[in-house]
Amino acid sequence: MTTKVTPFEGCCGSLAADALGEADAVELADALKVLADPARLRLLSMVASSATGEACACDLVEPLGRSQPTVSHHLSILVDAGFLSREKRGKWAWYRAVPERLEMLRSALRA
Question: Where are the alpha helices (DSSP H) in 2-98?
């Protein structure tokens, strides 16, 4: 199964403030589809709540309880959607949450 990932540019305001236009609704729906997977939502949460603000992919496998290829797949989708950034250090990939993307979601969902 291939997941279509569109980076969420998030120009929309609160859902309660104004009705969403078609383009904003599509962008927000695509972003929410990415986060609708429990594994991806947990990974984003683990990275975002990390004490150092970043996490190595190698440290996310055990807590998620999934195989390394599965974790890497989900992390790649989160990077492609703009929720995480990735930095290669030697043979390991390190991930950080993208605060602007998280804030855009918060703003859109704020009632």
Answer: 22-35, 38-48, 61-64, 68-80
